[in-house]
Design brief:
Layout (H helix, E strand, L loop, with lengths): L1 H8 L3 H17 L8 H13 L5 H26 L13 H14 L1 H7 L5 H11 L4 H26 L3 H34 L3 H9 L3 H56 L5 H10 L3 H13 L2 H19 L6 H6 L5 H13 L3 E2 L5 E2 L4 H18 L4 H24 L5 H30 L23
Antiparallel strand pairs: 1-2
InterPro entries: DedA-like (IPR032818), VTT_dom (IPR032816)
Family: Belongs to the DedA family.
Keywords: Cell membrane, Hydrolase, Membrane, Transmembrane, Transmembrane helix
Length: about 475
Amino acid sequence: MHDLLTWVQGLPTLWIYLVAALIVAGETAVIFGLLVPGEATLLLVGFLTYNGTLRLGPALLAMIVAAVLGDGLAFRAGRRYGPRLRAGLGHRVGPQRWARADAMLARLGGRGVFAARWVAFARTLVPRLAGAADMPYRRFALWNLAGVATWVSGSVLLGHLAGESYDTVSRLLGRATGVAFLLLAGLLGVVLVGRWLGRNPDPVRALLSRAGAVPPVRWLTARYGVLFFLVAMRIGPAWTLLLNLAAGLLLLFAAGLAIAGLLAVAVRNSGLAALDGAIAGWFAARRTPDAADATLVVVSVVRGSVLILLVAVVAAVLAWRNRPWRTDLLSVVGTVGAFVPLVVLAVVAEVTGPNGTAPGGGEVGPLSTQNAVVAASFCTLAWLVSRGAHWPVAVAAWTTAAAGVLGIGGARLYLGLETASGTAAAVLLGVLWTVVFMVAWATRDRAVGDGQPPVDQSRRPSEGHRRPVEPC
């Protein structure tokens, strides 16, 4: 890398501007721009502004103009060729990348154009898809300019500020891009799990119904179905419900382990752990005895067990005042038993971490138990309070929850109880854990509100008409 930088610095300045602009524009202007190192080029431009080879202002302007022109050409190509984009060289992109870019644009619209600038494959494909979808150019241009300006400026300024640490920043940024993909995939998985749970509010029964279609199980139930029925009648509906809820909680525990494992891998490979020492030193330099004592009192009071108890009380009160609840897993965890997923999350976080001790005596590892439970508890409280409330109440609830999560996480960092990487992973785990149930409940409410019951995906069309699902 040092030899490459020396060679580049020896080139005429105009050539450097021209080549860098062509690379940045070509990343989106041509379909094989997926192979062009746009981010690395902008980091290099930023480094060259640091050592005086290039000037920062003209470099920023040139790169922004080049990126806008490249996106404009891609938009025109999409408008002109439409579906034919996927043929020819486009088939080498792969159907999965096209499908993910399609989903981003369909879900976010103009915001998808903005977000695509920060995702490597998407910034090449989304402008073409926007043109093919007949998005008005004015709308595309505004969102695209916002995305280009932030992405180019952030990358160039990062390279400029890195200075002699260009190699390190470039390596970490490349790793961070992969981690971003991993987290996006995880978020998509969380949403899909929530949607499936909303359509199948009794997941254990749905899975057993699907398993019943497997030939060996079907033969077993056909042969001993009467025996199973008699056993179910013997234990009674109460024990049947308890067994079903216990099995559902085991499924939630498995889902929590999967999410926690994903976050642990993401944090481990993001390079964030490399900054833990610097961040801990920054907080330690600003720690005073009086402030530390006051912060420790707050952290001791606002801890996971207290918040879980608060969630239980709020959920019980709201369930008693607002609506009845049914005897299935989703109804229980969405109303009177809203604290149950938090208990499961606490067990998951305890199992998956910590694996060491921080300088202040706290947890070091991929996850922090307290921060995960605190984040999930604050988000669950905001979700419970904001459901069916007027928007000022909902905004106030979610603002308070965000302030609480950031405040407690920052307080534990200030005290040296946890690391930055562990805090980030734990907060993400708590938020994603709440997202599962928010998506599930919204899916169920939408289905009931539209007059269509949630569809049990495990049932086949030949099984007869669908049984309506009562509102919770």
